[in-house]
UniProtKB/TrEMBL annotation:
This is DUF1993 family protein. It comes from Duganella margarita. Pfam families: DUF1993 (PF09351). Coiled coil: none annotated. Transmembrane segments: none annotated. SUPFAM superfamilies: DinB/YfiT-like putative metalloenzymes.
Amino acid sequence: MTTFSMYTASIPVFKQILNSLSAILDKAEAHAADKKIDPNALLQYRLFPDMLPFTRQIQIACDFAKGAAARLGGQEVPSYEDKEVTFADLKARIAKTLAYIDSVPQAQIEGSEARAITTGSGEKTKHFVGQTYLFHYALPHFYFHATTAYDILRHNGLEIGKKDFIGSY
Protein backbone atom coordinates (compact mmCIF):
# COMPACT_ATOMS: atom_id res chain seq x y z
CA MET A 1 0.00 0.00 0.00
CA THR A 2 1.32 3.41 -0.94
CA THR A 3 1.07 6.13 1.66
CA PHE A 4 0.18 9.66 0.76
CA SER A 5 2.65 12.40 1.68
CA MET A 6 1.36 15.90 2.26
CA TYR A 7 4.95 17.11 2.24
CA THR A 8 5.72 15.58 -1.16
CA ALA A 9 2.46 16.94 -2.56
CA SER A 10 3.32 20.48 -1.46
CA ILE A 11 6.87 21.64 -0.70
CA PRO A 12 8.71 20.10 -3.68
CA VAL A 13 5.97 21.40 -5.99
CA PHE A 14 6.28 24.95 -4.66
CA LYS A 15 10.08 24.76 -4.85
CA GLN A 16 10.06 23.54 -8.46
CA ILE A 17 7.87 26.35 -9.74
CA LEU A 18 9.43 29.08 -7.58
CA ASN A 19 12.88 28.10 -8.84
CA SER A 20 11.53 28.24 -12.39
CA LEU A 21 10.08 31.71 -11.76
CA SER A 22 13.43 32.86 -10.43
CA ALA A 23 15.18 31.65 -13.59
CA ILE A 24 12.49 33.32 -15.72
CA LEU A 25 13.11 36.59 -13.88
CA ASP A 26 16.76 36.41 -14.98
CA LYS A 27 15.60 35.97 -18.57
CA ALA A 28 13.13 38.84 -18.23
CA GLU A 29 15.79 41.18 -16.89
CA ALA A 30 18.17 40.23 -19.74
CA HIS A 31 15.34 40.61 -22.27
CA ALA A 32 14.56 44.12 -21.02
CA ALA A 33 18.23 45.10 -21.22
CA ASP A 34 18.75 43.54 -24.68
CA LYS A 35 15.62 45.15 -26.15
CA LYS A 36 16.17 48.43 -24.27
CA ILE A 37 12.78 48.08 -22.57
CA ASP A 38 12.17 49.96 -19.33
CA PRO A 39 11.97 47.12 -16.76
CA ASN A 40 8.87 48.77 -15.27
CA ALA A 41 7.05 48.14 -18.54
CA LEU A 42 7.28 44.43 -17.70
CA LEU A 43 7.12 44.67 -13.91
CA GLN A 44 3.89 46.69 -13.98
CA TYR A 45 2.31 45.01 -17.02
CA ARG A 46 -1.20 43.59 -16.72
CA LEU A 47 -2.91 41.26 -19.16
CA PHE A 48 -6.10 43.25 -18.72
CA PRO A 49 -6.83 46.46 -16.78
CA ASP A 50 -8.72 44.65 -13.99
CA MET A 51 -5.90 42.14 -13.42
CA LEU A 52 -2.97 42.57 -11.06
CA PRO A 53 0.44 43.50 -12.50
CA PHE A 54 3.37 41.13 -12.96
CA THR A 55 5.08 42.12 -9.70
CA ARG A 56 1.95 41.38 -7.70
CA GLN A 57 1.54 37.98 -9.39
CA ILE A 58 4.99 36.94 -8.14
CA GLN A 59 4.28 38.29 -4.66
CA ILE A 60 1.02 36.37 -4.42
CA ALA A 61 2.55 33.13 -5.74
CA CYS A 62 5.16 33.44 -2.99
CA ASP A 63 2.43 34.18 -0.43
CA PHE A 64 0.53 31.01 -1.32
CA ALA A 65 3.68 28.88 -1.11
CA LYS A 66 4.74 30.22 2.29
CA GLY A 67 1.15 30.24 3.55
CA ALA A 68 0.61 26.63 2.62
CA ALA A 69 3.91 25.53 4.17
CA ALA A 70 3.09 27.38 7.38
CA ARG A 71 -0.51 26.27 7.69
CA LEU A 72 0.20 22.64 6.81
CA GLY A 73 3.11 22.72 9.24
CA GLY A 74 0.96 24.17 12.03
CA GLN A 75 2.94 27.42 12.11
CA GLU A 76 2.04 31.10 12.00
CA VAL A 77 2.20 32.44 8.43
CA PRO A 78 5.10 34.89 8.13
CA SER A 79 4.21 38.32 6.82
CA TYR A 80 6.20 39.85 3.95
CA GLU A 81 5.95 43.48 2.96
CA ASP A 82 4.95 43.91 -0.67
CA LYS A 83 7.73 46.36 -1.51
CA GLU A 84 9.44 44.71 -4.48
CA VAL A 85 10.00 47.05 -7.41
CA THR A 86 12.80 45.38 -9.42
CA PHE A 87 13.58 41.97 -10.86
CA ALA A 88 16.28 41.62 -8.18
CA ASP A 89 13.72 42.42 -5.47
CA LEU A 90 11.39 39.73 -6.81
CA LYS A 91 14.23 37.19 -6.96
CA ALA A 92 15.04 38.04 -3.33
CA ARG A 93 11.40 37.47 -2.36
CA ILE A 94 11.41 34.09 -4.08
CA ALA A 95 14.69 33.19 -2.33
CA LYS A 96 13.23 34.26 1.03
CA THR A 97 10.13 32.16 0.34
CA LEU A 98 12.22 29.14 -0.64
CA ALA A 99 14.29 29.49 2.54
CA TYR A 100 11.13 29.70 4.64
CA ILE A 101 9.41 26.67 3.12
CA ASP A 102 12.65 24.72 3.52
CA SER A 103 12.65 25.65 7.22
CA VAL A 104 9.29 23.99 7.93
CA PRO A 105 10.11 20.48 9.14
CA GLN A 106 8.77 17.72 6.92
CA ALA A 107 7.49 15.90 10.00
CA GLN A 108 5.22 18.85 10.83
CA ILE A 109 3.62 18.76 7.37
CA GLU A 110 3.19 14.99 7.19
CA GLY A 111 -0.15 13.94 8.56
CA SER A 112 -1.70 17.38 8.03
CA GLU A 113 -4.44 15.99 5.76
CA ALA A 114 -7.06 16.45 8.48
CA ARG A 115 -5.50 19.49 10.22
CA ALA A 116 -8.03 22.30 10.65
CA ILE A 117 -6.94 25.28 8.56
CA THR A 118 -8.49 28.72 8.52
CA THR A 119 -7.67 31.47 6.06
CA GLY A 120 -8.83 35.05 5.82
CA SER A 121 -10.83 36.99 8.34
CA GLY A 122 -14.29 38.44 8.73
CA GLU A 123 -16.56 37.69 5.77
CA LYS A 124 -13.59 36.19 3.88
CA THR A 125 -12.89 33.51 6.49
CA LYS A 126 -12.60 30.03 4.99
CA HIS A 127 -12.31 26.76 6.91
CA PHE A 128 -10.66 23.67 5.47
CA VAL A 129 -9.00 20.44 6.41
CA GLY A 130 -5.38 20.20 5.24
CA GLN A 131 -5.83 18.03 2.16
CA THR A 132 -8.76 20.06 0.85
CA TYR A 133 -6.89 23.29 1.57
CA LEU A 134 -3.82 22.11 -0.35
CA PHE A 135 -5.53 20.62 -3.40
CA HIS A 136 -8.53 22.88 -3.78
CA TYR A 137 -7.25 26.23 -2.54
CA ALA A 138 -3.49 26.70 -2.08
CA LEU A 139 -2.17 24.87 -5.15
CA PRO A 140 -4.78 26.25 -7.59
CA HIS A 141 -4.15 29.81 -6.40
CA PHE A 142 -0.37 29.32 -6.49
CA TYR A 143 -0.47 27.96 -10.04
CA PHE A 144 -2.87 30.69 -11.19
CA HIS A 145 -0.52 33.47 -10.13
CA ALA A 146 2.65 31.70 -11.28
CA THR A 147 1.05 31.02 -14.68
CA THR A 148 -0.23 34.58 -14.98
CA ALA A 149 3.29 35.91 -14.30
CA TYR A 150 4.65 33.57 -16.99
CA ASP A 151 1.89 34.61 -19.42
CA ILE A 152 2.62 38.32 -18.90
CA LEU A 153 6.25 37.83 -19.85
CA ARG A 154 5.45 35.53 -22.77
CA HIS A 155 2.87 38.01 -24.05
CA ASN A 156 5.56 40.70 -23.96
CA GLY A 157 7.90 38.77 -26.22
CA LEU A 158 10.08 36.90 -23.75
CA GLU A 159 11.24 33.73 -25.45
CA ILE A 160 10.24 31.20 -22.83
CA GLY A 161 8.25 28.02 -23.08
CA LYS A 162 6.66 25.26 -21.07
CA LYS A 163 10.06 23.83 -20.15
CA ASP A 164 11.00 27.17 -18.56
CA PHE A 165 7.79 27.16 -16.52
CA ILE A 166 8.00 23.52 -15.45
CA GLY A 167 11.72 23.67 -14.70
CA SER A 168 13.47 20.62 -13.35
CA TYR A 169 12.19 18.14 -10.81
